[in-house]
């Protein structure tokens, strides 16, 4: 098996295939085997799992996952990397390499059930949120049991996803992701373990997909809209933010906040997902 975290091996492979790191695709490859193994450890992969990886690059993490999982499905947008992956992953018979843009892929076509499914990925940072939202919002059928997702992401984005009320990173992204999953920060990763070095630090987070939501909005999209509007002007009180950023009349909002037991002078960052859900449901029922 090739040592794919060695900078010399990476440079050789790139030269042999006449490749350059494609900035546009967020190509920063891991060059630290310990960190790579730590990320895969955080994925809690078992020999029964199918693992979905987004953005294998030259396949360094894919190799490590394939040694632990039943099957790996890895989706890479850059067709120039597909021939490299054919070479680096050629010895494995449990890896499916898919040359597609993950955001345009019908992900349900890729995973054959019944299976337990996990996701492990060093994400391209320019599309972190849409990738995570796609995975969370996919209507996984019975028989495909998605539980844990482990991502290497830009530190600031990972902190926003995992933040709770009262923290300065807490925002609409925290509330929306936490509606679907229970997130946790695993460990931080310095820029020095990537080739080429990104300008930002990174963090590994895990998302444990909820089997049951803690609260149920009447209309999920309306709930998300209320949350986004409340955080749009986060320094303002929740009443001012919502009346500036939604079509609801101020009097209706005041009534709804009062009914939900929320002090209208509070700020969005002081409210948890359940409070937002209560408020959104009251507004929904008022038909306002
Ligand atoms: N997994 C490798 C590693 O850890 O060294 C590479 C990670 S690199 C940060 C992100 C990878 O995602 C690149 O290989 C890039 O080409 C790929 N990528 C970027 N956009 C993508 C998309 N829309 N769909 C699938 N892969 C994508």
Can you tell me about this structure?
Its main location: cytoplasm. S-adenosyl-L-methionine binds at residues 28, 30, 55, 76, 101, 122. It comes from Pseudoramibacter porci. It is an enzyme of class 2 (transferase). It catalyses: adenosine(1518)/adenosine(1519) in 16S rRNA + 4 S-adenosyl-L-methionine = N(6)-dimethyladenosine(1518)/N(6)-dimethyladenosine(1519) in 16S rRNA + 4 S-adenosyl-L-homocysteine + 4 H(+). By secondary structure, this protein is α/β, with parallel strands linked by helices. The protein has twelve helices and nine strands. The chain has helices at residues 7-16, 33-42, 60-66, 79-88, 107-110, 128-137, 155-162, 172-180, 220-232, 238-245, 250-259, 273-286; strands spanning 29-30, 49-54, 71-75, 95-98, 115-122, 144-154, 181-189, 194-195, 202-209. The strands form two sheets. It has a seven-stranded mixed β-sheet. A two-stranded antiparallel ribbon has the order 1-8. Helix 9 crosses helix 10 (238-245) and helix 11 crosses helix 12. It is elongated, with a radius of gyration of 21 Å. The termini are far apart. The model has no long low-confidence stretch (mean pLDDT 97).
Quick synopsis:
Specifically dimethylates two adjacent adenosines (A1518 and A1519) in the loop of a conserved hairpin near the 3'-end of 16S rRNA in the 30S particle. May play a critical role in biogenesis of 30S subunits. With 288 residues, this protein is of the alpha/beta class.
Any descriptors?
single chain, about 290 residues, alpha/beta, two-stranded antiparallel sheet, 12 helices, 9 strands, elongated, binds S-adenosylmethionine, 16S rRNA (adenine(1518)-N(6)/adenine(1519)-N(6))-dimethyltransferase activity
């Amino acid at each position: 098996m090739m040592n794919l975290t060695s900078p010399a091996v990476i440079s050789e492979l790139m030269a042999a295939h006449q490749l350059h790191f494609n900035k546009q695709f967020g190509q920063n490859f891991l060059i630290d085997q310990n960190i790579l193994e730590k990320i895969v450890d955080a994925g809690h992969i078992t020999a029964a799992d199918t693992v979905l990886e987004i953005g294998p690059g030259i396949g360094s993490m894919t190799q490590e996952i394939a040694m632990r999982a039943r099957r790996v499905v890895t989706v890479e947008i850059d067709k120039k990397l597909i021939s490299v992956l054919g070479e680096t992953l050629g010895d494995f018979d449990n890896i499916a390499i898919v040359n597609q843009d993950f955001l345009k892929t019908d992900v349900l076509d890729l995973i054959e059930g019944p299976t337990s499914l996990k996701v492990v990925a060093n994400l391209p940072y320019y599309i972190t949120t849409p990738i995570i939202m796609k995975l969370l919002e996919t209507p996984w059928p019975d028989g495909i049991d998605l539980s844990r997702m482990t991502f290497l992401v830009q530190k600031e984005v990972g902190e926003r996803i995992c933040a709770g009320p009262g923290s300065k990173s807490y925002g609409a992204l925290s509330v929306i992701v936490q509606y679907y999953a229970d997130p946790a920060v695993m460990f931080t990763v310095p820029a020095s373990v990537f080739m080429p070095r990104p300008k930002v630090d990174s963090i590994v987070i895990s998302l444990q997909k909820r089997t049951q939501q803690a609260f149920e909005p009447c209309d999920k999209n309306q709930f998300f809209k209320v949350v986004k509007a409340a955080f749009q002007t986060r320094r303002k009180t929740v009443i001012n933010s919502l009346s500036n950023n939604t079509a609801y009349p101020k009097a209706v909002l005041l009534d709804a906040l009062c009914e939900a037991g929320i002090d209208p002078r509070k700020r969005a960052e002081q409210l948890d997902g359940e409070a937002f859900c209560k408020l959104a449901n009251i507004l929904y029922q008022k038909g306002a």
